[in-house]
Structures are given as C-alpha cells and as structure tokens.
Amino acid sequence: MFIQIDMHSSVPIYKQLKTAIISSILSGKLKEGDRLPSVRQLGSDLGINLHTVNKAYNLLKDEGYIIIHRNQGAIISKPTKAGKEDLTEFANALLPIVIEIRARNITRTQFDELMDVIWEQDMIGGDNDEHR
Amino acid sequence: MFIQIDMHSSVPIYKQLKTAIISSILSGKLKEGDRLPSVRQLGSDLGINLHTVNKAYNLLKDEGYIIIHRNQGAIISKPTKAGKEDLTEFANALLPIVIEIRARNITRTQFDELMDVIWEQDMIGGDNDEHR
Amino acid sequence: MFIQIDMHSSVPIYKQLKTAIISSILSGKLKEGDRLPSVRQLGSDLGINLHTVNKAYNLLKDEGYIIIHRNQGAIISKPTKAGKEDLTEFANALLPIVIEIRARNITRTQFDELMDVIWEQDMIGGDNDEHR
Amino acid sequence: MFIQIDMHSSVPIYKQLKTAIISSILSGKLKEGDRLPSVRQLGSDLGINLHTVNKAYNLLKDEGYIIIHRNQGAIISKPTKAGKEDLTEFANALLPIVIEIRARNITRTQFDELMDVIWEQDMIGGDNDEHR
DNA sequence: GTGGTCTAGACCACT
DNA sequence: GTGGTCTAGACCACC
Hints:
mainly alpha, Arc Repressor Mutant, subunit A, two-stranded antiparallel ribbon, DNA-binding, homotetramer, 5 helices
C-alpha cells in the first residue's frame, strides 16, 4: 500500500484514496482476498482523518471492490463489475476536459499519445511490471 | 446560444456554462466579435442567477476567451491560447476517470471509439450546419 | 489633438480622455488659449458618446485646466495649480501599484529606470519635440 | 493581521484587502506557512461580508500568494513570482498618476523623495520590529 | 468548523 | 441597460 495523497489538490482526499485503491487493484498490487489496513492504521499512515478513510472504504464497498467485515476489516473482493452499461456517464465526465484540451489546439494525435501514457500508468509511485 | 444546463449535476452551473460557451466557440457557433447575451438576459433565459452567469463570464475573460466591456457586455475575443505547455494538468484530470473506465473492463479500443464520438462532438443539441 | 482611447481598457473612457488632454497640455501640444473641439466633434472623432466627452471636459473645468464658455466651447486656461499640497493623495494611489511591483521582485533601480521612461513620456501617439 | 480597510475609498474593499495581505507578506509579517483567518473570522473582524473576503482570498490564490485548503483555510505559499515579464502593465497603471503629479509642478526629484517613502513602507500602522 | 456555490436584492459607474 | 461591487442568507462537501 504505497498511496500518495496530494493534500494540496482540490480533489477530495477520500476520492483520491478511493481512486488509488482501485488503481492498485487494477495493477495487481492488491489481489482478491488481500486485507486493507484498518481505517485507523491507514489514516495515521497517511496523516488524514480516519473518517475520511472510512468514507473511501464505504464507497469501495458500495461499488463492489471490497467487502467490509465488521471485525476483520476490509477485504478485496472478486471483480464483479459487469461493465460497459453506462458509457455515457464517462462521456459526460470526459467531455468538458476534452473541450478544454481542444481549446489548447492539441491535436487528436497528441491526445492519443497522452492517453497512451495515462492508460498504462499505475498510480503515482507505482511500479508497473505485470498488468496487461 | 442554445445552452443546456443540468441543474442536478454535481458540476457547478458556472462551470457548465463556461464549458458550453468554449464549446460553442470551438464549433464555430460563436465567432470572434460576436456578443454574448448580458448576464441578466442569459441568467433569466437559463433560469439561473445573474451572478452565476457573471462568474462564468469572468472566468472566460481571465482565460482570454472573451473581452468584457463595461457597457457593452461580453465579446468573443481572438483565440490566443498558446497551448501545449501544461499537459500534466489534463493528465491529472483524466487519470481518475481512466482508472474507473479500466475498472469496468473497457478495452483501449472501446475507449478510443468512445473518444472518437466525444472528440468530434459539438455541443449537446447543437445543430451546426449553418456556420460557414 | 491626436488622442488615443483604448476601448478595451478597464479605465473609464472619460478618465482616459481627461488624462490625455492634461498630458497634451503638459507636453505643450495644447497651450493657454487654445480651443478644444466641441464635445460633438471630439465624440464623433473618437467614436465615443458626447456625454462621455462632456464628463471629461467638466472634470477638467473643475480642476482648473480649462474654462468652458457657454457658446464658445472649451479653452485651455492658465496653469494655476498651486501644487504640492496633497502628496498623500498620490502616495495612496501609488502604494498598491508599488506593492505589486515589489512582489514581482523588481528592484528599486529597475523601477527608477521604468520611471525614467514614464516620466518623459508624452501620451501614447505623442510626438515629443519641444518640452523640457 | 492588522489590516486597515477604508470603507469610503473608491478602491474596492476586496482589492484593498488583497493589497494589504500582499504587503504583509512582503514586509515579513506573514510568512510561508502562516494561516490567514477564515473568511468568516476576518469578515467579522473587519466588519465586511465574508464573500468580499473570499473574493480577495481567491485572487490571492490565483496569483499564487496563498493556497486554499478546503477545510483548513488559507495558507501563505512559497513566493514563486517569476517576475519582470510585463512591466508595461505597471507602466500603464503608473502613467496617469504621473501625469497628474507632473501637472502639479512636482519635480522628478521631489517625486523620487516621495517614492523613497512609499517604497520602504510596510503597511499602514505596521510595527515590524519583531519579524526575524 | 472550513471554503464552494447559488440565490437575491441593492447601489453604483459608465455609456 | 451594462457589468462591478457589496451584502445577506442559505445549503453543501469536506474533514
């Protein structure tokens, strides 16, 4: 669990944490059955409030990435995401960013090159060896 | 000026408005020299407060998309975006979305197809056949 | 009367006009007894509203730079500024600008060099031949 | 935080506040890492609306003087002003004042003496002996 | 508790 | 009638 939180970012901490954990799962650093640290542990490791960690864990639980057992903490669950249903949700999130990008006179080719980097990237600080 | 605002979105209204106007400029629906409606006019058209419109206009002014004259409202300005300097800013915005997308088991190819649609898209509801 | 008005500036037009006329007096382009154009004339020359010209003229009258005769237009008056009474007024106007300048790590020497240019300058578009 | 606001000035309150804070930073009364009062706190201290304070803070944020954390208020940031690029901006601001000054028959020497005072000045009412 | 956003209403400067 | 500024009060997200 090498998780980087940017305290200066305008992105809420709980959301950064959630994304970082999903990313670790995708990259294989966290596998089904692995235990996440307790909210207290992780909170103190990252120097953030345990309620913030808790909020991230609950979102991950709601989206099926982890299972929270009352006394045993959080366990990475089987990937069950059916996927692909709601691409429009992502399109809506991407559209404003793409508009800003196009306003910078960035070509589609340049964008694709940027996306190549992003797509392969693990989380900041990640060591990519095994995915894909 | 056919602008769609989603009052229920978590994206702030002023930001939606700003994005919509930039998009209209990109698509050619708004051209250099065109006048934007007054803040009062547009606010009442969209059913939002004039201060919210004002905030969007001021952001557009700060980023060089429009020029605001005290008594004549807002005018679309020459595009002067130098561009390309700070791609990392966009990468940071895209990364969490991409992570969510990958978590849905969407392939890079499928993503590119989605991006084809987004990239070419003018604004929602936009009919852009008449702009020369 | 070669007066440049920047319609894009946030400085009110009437104030730009007033400053430009004072500058012309200082540089000798306008001398005691010279007639200023009528408000209609100057307004149409500059492409601005005659009320705006009128406002500038009235300020100049109030500050003793010109005399307005009901039917003969505005005449440059004898310089009667006693001067030097209220330096604090200027200090207050200069202070915020100086603060911004210092925040840019500009040295006093660099500032003095800048001031050399400003001090000698006639108005934009002015042809300096005779003053000092 | 001893900040003087002139409610009767034609200079907007938020701009006075912004300038005062920059000045405090320059003079060393505010140092990197120091916390500014919350918008509510400072607003009530100064007898102005919190939104007015907020506007000043956001300008300071945009110009890199402070960092605003969602839950911890505003922190003085590292000075990162590159500086020196756009002296013309300042020249334009200084020119009309200089013209008024010259119209008062103030000599360059007298002006320089005035500037000596302004340049060295910390903030009005500031007692800066204790900052290291 | 913090700032972010939105609404609302007011007054002012400018043209 | 235009935007600029200020006030005020409300709700929300975050921690």
